[in-house]
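Pipeline run #58 for the internal structure catalog. This entry was flagged by the ingest filter as a single-chain record with no existing model, so it goes straight to prediction. Upstream metadata was stripped on purpose; only the residue string is passed forward. Reviewer on rotation: M.T. Logging verbosity set to normal.
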Amino acid sequence: MPANSTYRVQCSSLAKGKDVRTACSAGCISCGICEKNCPSGAITVENNIAKIDYDKCTECGICAEKCPRKIINMY
């Protein structure tokens, strides 16, 4: 993550959705909502976790707004 980026994924677990929900209140459940709603195609869900391509990210904030677990945050 670049030092000047505004958004980041607040989870590093590679566990599947149900396991993450059981163990962590701030874990990515790999639902793909962020990926489906990103207008610049900057987010992909890989290995059960959302990843931001900062070269494509326009910092529009839609991913953070749509994330049901609120694990994509603005800093």
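catalog note: The chain has three helices and four strands.
catalog note: The longest helix spans residues 17-23.
status: ready for reviewer M.T.
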